Amino acid sequence: MKLSNKTQALQDLITPAVQACDVELWGIEFIPQGKRSLLRIYIDKDVVENAEPTINEDGEAELGRGIGVQDCVRVTQQVGEYALEVSSPGWDRPFFQLAQLEKYIGQQVALRLIAAVENRRKFQAKLIAVDLENEFIQVEVEKQQVLEIDSNNIDKANLIFQD
């Protein structure tokens, strides 16, 4: 899950501005489109179960339910002049860092690899383990086959929403 140099530089630049809005920078996508390149920023914050409503600095009620419209507006205002999209990672959240996968062990993920493993570059599999020290994940594919995948071989990873 390696970022391009440009994406890493943008993420390093944006992180302090996003953190100033009391949200977590989940990840970014930079999509070059000539003069109107798109910068997509994913933000997140913990959901507080049974939270009492509070009033924020804008005089609006917050219910502790994760990202709201005001969070997106604050980040957009803080970051500035880009063709910009700010959103929650959503149900099918993309993963940008290996550590983000840890909370989702036991759930289904979609993976697109750079180099094929077992003659495949695309998988939908159950995430079984995340090894941050050795930078790999283990997934269970069909017929209970377990594959070990180097994190630097992951081009794209998303959670598969299941209700």
Automatic annotation (TrEMBL):
InterPro entries with a match to the protein in the record: Ribosome_maturation_RimP (IPR003728), RimP_C (IPR028998), RimP_C_sf (IPR036847), RimP_N (IPR028989), RimP_N_sf (IPR035956)
Swiss-Prot/TrEMBL keywords: Cytoplasm, Ribosome biogenesis
Record Pfam families: DUF150_C (PF17384), RimP_N (PF02576)
Organism per entry: Oppiella nova
Key word Methyltransferase present: no
Keyword Metal-binding found: no
GO cellular component terms, semicolon-separated: cytosol
Domain called Ribosome maturation factor RimP N-terminal: residue spans: 13-92
Coiled-coil spans in chain: none
Source domain of life: Eukaryota
Protein name per Swiss-Prot or TrEMBL: Ribosome maturation factor RimP
GO biological process, one term: translation
HAMAP family reported in the protein's UniProt record: RimP
Domain Ribosome maturation factor RimP C-terminal: 96-162
